[in-house]
């Protein structure tokens, strides 16, 4: 199949490109490297079935790249959006642009190509949930003028654009709401909790736990997640949203302890102030995606082992300094 991936140089996009190429597909990919890295494309950039353009999805260059290819895209994955909690402020303009004009442009291409379309939304669209578990019909608790709104409302607006296109143009589009994902190719300095803790542990610096570390998250290994994205693309119903992730909870303090153990690190744990906007807990209901035949298979200890090996290979002095200095002041990803 001919498949377009927007945001292909990112953590999930690069793992998805790799898998789709290995499955024998031809992949067209775009990324503007806002938070992605060219090194993530290294292992397959010379593959003749991989065609890459550096451009933002909100630009004319993106539309031109798509029309210049003179192929029909069968599937389009839209992952293009800056990530990382501190980037909600630092890359606020880019986030809002990707979620508005970017999503609009990709939907336009999907319509022109009559392609199946999948958008990676986020558990952040539920905001600070008032219910202990979140099913897809929970409408969330988001503050539109709150600190996290650039990302939370950005993703919500993208979802609205998609549903409008489904209703107006009968677009074959589905939404996947990702809960926390981890694995190889996460950027070392991207402030999310697992890369931050692993980097700190590998250089024997204290792991910075925010507050008492009682925040609860669920962590899904990227290979499981990719299988879920491909399955929902193929079997998911147009106009439906699907939660995707793990439903096994872990507190941030327990996660820090687990990573110290897995890295055999001499690090201690240090407790630092917690941001007001940090969410307490998130827990997906996974019935809809399980009904399609998906489940996660990789347990946390195995997934952490694979991720730690990957980090050991990539770690550099610059990345360590960046990750550690910044993570002391800024929030790990919720
Ligand atoms: N990793 C997670 O835990 C998680 C959780 C929820 C949702 N998501 C969503 O999944 C998608 C992929 O996330 P990720 O973890 O791989 O993050 P990432 O930051 O590694 O990847 C996002 C990619 O999109 C690119 N990008 C940003 N703006 C762009 C634009 N305007 N045009 C083209 N490319 C652009 C970035 O450079 C980057 O390569 C994102 O949409 C993110 O919001 C991820």
TrEMBL record:
<dbReference type="InterPro" id="IPR001509">
    <property type="entry name" value="Epimerase_deHydtase"/>
</dbReference>
<keyword id="KW-1133">Transmembrane helix</keyword>
<dbReference type="GO" id="GO:0042732">
    <property type="term" value="P:D-xylose metabolic process"/>
</dbReference>
<feature type="domain" description="NAD-dependent epimerase/dehydratase">
    <location>
        <begin position="3"/>
        <end position="245"/>
    </location>
</feature>
<dbReference type="GO" id="GO:0070403">
    <property type="term" value="F:NAD+ binding"/>
</dbReference>
<keyword id="KW-0735">Signal-anchor</keyword>
<dbReference type="InterPro" id="IPR044516">
    <property type="entry name" value="UXS-like"/>
</dbReference>
<dbReference type="InterPro" id="IPR036291">
    <property type="entry name" value="NAD(P)-bd_dom_sf"/>
</dbReference>
<keyword id="KW-0210">Decarboxylase</keyword>
<keyword id="KW-0472">Membrane</keyword>
<keyword id="KW-0456">Lyase</keyword>
<dbReference type="GO" id="GO:0048040">
    <property type="term" value="F:UDP-glucuronate decarboxylase activity"/>
</dbReference>
<keyword id="KW-0333">Golgi apparatus</keyword>
<protein>
    <recommendedName>
        <fullName>NAD-dependent epimerase/dehydratase domain-containing protein</fullName>
    </recommendedName>
</protein>
<keyword id="KW-0325">Glycoprotein</keyword>
<dbReference type="Pfam" id="PF01370">
    <property type="entry name" value="Epimerase"/>
</dbReference>
<keyword id="KW-0520">NAD</keyword>
<keyword id="KW-0812">Transmembrane</keyword>
<dbReference type="GO" id="GO:0005737">
    <property type="term" value="C:cytoplasm"/>
</dbReference>
